[in-house]
Specification:
Distance between the termini: 16 Å
Strand content: 35-45%
Structural class: alpha+beta
Number of strands: 17
Radius of gyration: 21 Å
CATH architecture of the largest domain: 3-Layer(aba) Sandwich
Shape: globular
């Protein structure tokens, strides 16, 4: 129900390099604790009880344990609308940036969980310290009983009330997931941005000998500067997964960078799509030879793109790069996520052949929900007005 909800909390950063402290204080009739949580540069095993209610305990835990990973692996994502399973969960969780688990346990058994991560983001080139909830997930035994809704609201309240000073809270929730939208709205969030899914596919992708991977420090420095300039007027900008596994690739012309992107290899199972057409696609796609090359519900493998860059007027070079990467890595489909008002999104849609898969993905919208504390009207308006940068690692 909540597994595809990503809740984020951003607190204006003063570039404190070594640690950020959250003070969580919540008195409850049965138990109460004061927890000081050091989130940065501290990966030792930690567990702190936040509160108890009846036979349930909610705790802060670090690192994310195997029982949490197993719960995520066992669960599907989505409720209304698309329903799917991530097959890369264990590897994905182990590579999250500074992850922390908020657990809901019943007699020491994990029955609900949320995972949030700590990193720095930029809004219009101004740095903020950021926490985003990457997962909400519930065990089958408590689904449909209201426990997860209560836990989700309580977890959001714990984090929100633990912040002091100017703070942004935001969550990305799939547009079809009405139950999660309702919970996040009940927690005091409003929709401020819409995220679009862009699909690029080729039945027979062509190789390109122009593609290079960013290996040297000089190449990586130049690419990061290009990306910083390219997304300078965006919000929630962070490049923590750029160069992950040395998988940033680019094309140059006359020694100048003209197109680039980071790839992540992703493997899903699609269990449900909305509507009559969606049901037919899920049922038939594994058995139609050409269609299953770009979309196979039983084995949906794709490249997730982020850190997308191209020089104005060179959109076709970007698509050449993506097609070459599909051929290089043995895939037929790539997905990327953009703010609806991101200029890059419209430039790619206008100037290139995206392929058949975009017909399946273009309506898979996500809302960015936000809430603000101790911020003046101009600051809030800037967050609302700037298109957001999307890391595909956070969406897969």
């Amino acid at each position: 129900m909540y597994a595809n909800t990503k809740l984020s909390i951003c607190k204006q950063s003063k570039r404190i390099a070594h640690k950020t402290i959250l003070y969580l204080w919540h008195p409850f009739p049965k138990k109460h604790t004061c927890s000081i949580i050091h989130l940065r540069n501290s990966m030792e095993v930690q567990k702190k009880l936040l509160f108890s209610e009846g036979e349930f305990d909610i705790s802060f835990e670090r690192p994310v344990g195997n029982d949490a990973i197993n719960l995520l692996k066992a669960n599907s994502i989505g409720n209304q609308g698309p329903v799917y399973r991530h097959l890369d969960t264990e590897e994905h969780v182990k590579n999250l940036v500074n992850p922390t688990l908020i657990s809901l346990r019943k007699k020491d058994s994990l029955v609900g969980m949320g995972v949030f991560c700590n990193l720095e983001v930029k809004v219009d080139n101004n740095p903020y310290n950021c926490f985003y909830i990457r997962y909400f997930s519930a065990a089958p035994e408590i689904r449909g009983q209201g426990f997860m809704k209560k836990f989700g609201l309580r977890a959001m309240s714990l984090i929100r009330n633990g912040q002091h000073g100017k703070t942004i809270f935001y969550a990305s929730v799939e547009a079809h997931n009405k139950s999660s939208l309702n919970v996040v709205e009940e927690a005091g969030y409003e929709p401020i941005r819409k995220i679009k899914t862009l699909g690029i596919s080729r039945f027979f992708p062509k190789q390109s000998n122009k593609i290079r991977s960013a290996q040297t420090p000089d190449e990586q420095k130049r690419i990061l500067q290009s990306l910083s300039d390219f997304y300078g007027k965006h919000s929630m900008v962070q490049f923590t997964k750029i160069f992950h596994l040395n998988d940033y690739y680019f094309i140059e012309e006359d020694g100048q960078l003209v197109a680039g992107c980071q790839i992540h290899r992703v493997h899903w199972i699609i269990k449900k799509l909305g509507g009559i057409t969606g049901k037919a696609i899920v049922a038939l796609s594994p058995y139609i030879p050409l269609i299953r090359k770009i979309f196979n519900a039983k084995k949906f493998n794709f490249l997730a793109l982020e850190g997308i860059y191209f020089v104005a007027g060179k959109e076709k070079r970007f698509l050449e790069l993506v097609e070459g990467l599909l051929a290089m890595h043995g895939f037929n489909t790539a997905l990327a996520w953009f703010d609806k008002e991101c200029p890059s999104y419209h430039a790619i849609c206008k100037n290139g052949n995206l392929g058949l898969v975009n017909l399946f993905t273009r309506k898979a919208d996500t809302y960015l929900m936000a809430s603000f504390v101790d911020m003046d009207a101009d600051e809030i308006q800037k967050v609302k007005n700037c298109p957001v940068y999307i890391s595909s690692y956070d969406f897969t």
